[in-house]
Amino acid sequence: MNLFNLIKKEREYWLVDQHKVSHIPNIDYLVAFDQLLTEWKEQKVAYLSLLMDEENEDWLLKRRFKKVSSIVEYTKTLQGPFKNTSDFQVDALSESQVTDSDFARLYDACRSGSANKNKLFSISQIMESLELELGTNWRDQCFIFSQNGRNYGISIPHIEQGTTEEGRMFYFGVVPEQREKGYGKIFHAISIELLKTLGAKIYVGSTDTGNVPMRRIFETNGCVLRDIKGIYRIDMKKVDELRR
To answer: Model-level pTM?
Structure first.
């Protein structure tokens, strides 16, 4: 069993997420991650971003990680067929008239002013990573919410790597001028429904602990708190400086 989900981008970054299983002791995670960290150092990747249980924080800080923030994970069991009872039009990027560059600008607008602290990438890097994480058909999983010709928000539901039934959202957001109008909970509910069409049986969503509006959306749409993790980062430049 893989104890960590891992996304790699050449020598630019590693994104690592602890896959927590109740019967596996914490020491097994520490041993596995120590091996992974050694490999990262040997390959001289620019940085590593890690999602891991906060009980290991002191252990990580001693290894020169810095803490970025804390996140909460919510979950919901998915049942029944897809249904959309809203008046919003929902189009996949692959079937819309929106270009990739227009979608990138819409994505960037949706993430502006976010309460989440873990902002690692520029919008160009995010667009590059879509195919890396979602595959060549990534446009089929990018959805735009619109009404009367106006775009209100986006969502990118997908099946988590290494699983067949765990649904997640690469991103979900509302454009700034349409916030605080209740659209967030509508688009989030539709996105959860879209996960069913991909075969998801369970949904897992996360946000910064301080992102109260997003936490309310999770709870309004029937999600329950599952876990709290820390976001930690280590940079190869800092590691090399310490070796000198």
So the answer is: 0.86
